[in-house]
Amino acid sequence: MTEPARGAESEALPLRLNWRQADREADYVADADGYDGCVGRIYLRGDGPQQGLWFWAMNAHGSEISRNIDSLNGVEKSARAAARMVEGAWFAAIKGSSLDRPLPRRNAYAMARTGE
Known about the structure:
This is Reductase C-terminal domain-containing protein. The protein has helices at residues 79-94, 108-114, and strands at 18-21, 27-31, 40-44, 54-58, 73-76. The two termini are 16 Å apart. The protein is an alpha+beta fold.
């Protein structure tokens, strides 16, 4: 599975959603366990005043997903930072719903394979 690249050491924490590359380069979408459909998207802006910045949007919707959270979209300097913004918006939007359940604990073998 492809996910946005890690930049600085401050971006070393693993991402919590399932990220995959979309139809074109520098374009990623996130899926979440228990939710049918895409949770969010990030992509590199190629032109205009935001050229070189990563656009992000949490675009999930449904009866259990709040749209009354801080931000649902924006831009960041790195792909990893944009992915973290999508994840933050997603987890804020599902807080207290049936979608809000703890992630399964990963065993030591799986963590060692991914370098965590």
